[in-house]
Amino acid sequence: MAIKIIIADDHQLFREGLANLLADTNDIEILAQAENGRDAFNKARELNPDVIIMDIGMPVMDGVEATRQLIKELPEAKVVALSMHAEKQYIKGMFEAGASGYLFKNCAYDELIRAIRTVHNGKKYLSERITEIMINDYLGKEEDLPVTDSELTERESEILKLIAEGVSTSDISDRLFVSIKTIGTHKQHILEKLNLKTTTDLVKYAIKKGIISLD
Fold first, then answer.
1. Which of 20, 38, 53, 95 could form a disulfide with 61 if both were Cys (CB 3.0 to 4.6 A apart)?
2. Looking at residue 43, which CATH number applies to its domain?
3. Domain ends where: 110, 138, 166?
4. Digit-coded pLDDT (tens) for 184-212
């Protein structure tokens, strides 16, 4: 019997791409897609899925709160977090809310399938990197494991370099022939992927990685 899935993510291209991939798996059935946590909650109540693949940073209602409400309403449902966030507070927040698994968005397709099947069978699933983060937390180590710059897209790497060089958002927009809003979206994705918070952090990161120099 197929595992019934809802995919919740606010990025349409990512969500639809993932749905297309999973649809080719014999024991998985995609019931619906949701663009935010509230939408995921409402569709789960209506369709009663086995597993919800849940992003964390979504509008209207984030993945943590959506998971909390879902598990309260549908305790048999399983939630697998699929996120760019490597910070301990997000990981712990999702499991405290009732999630059964946590993966990074750059995980291999086979690992996602394995996670879905594992939680559907009533077990927890943590990727190796998530396990290491949690062990470090248990041992009292403060560092998170950041996503590396090699996992940025080519356009994100280009924008990272320009920002670090001090080029203004409007000038980057003119150079790359995209809107200022698009540059802002790329910048936010870069910050999330690299586990950074400010433009200053981006500049420090770029210097440390040799993306720019102080000469």
1. 38
2. 3.40.50.2300
3. 138
4. 999 999 998 888 888 888 888 887 777 77
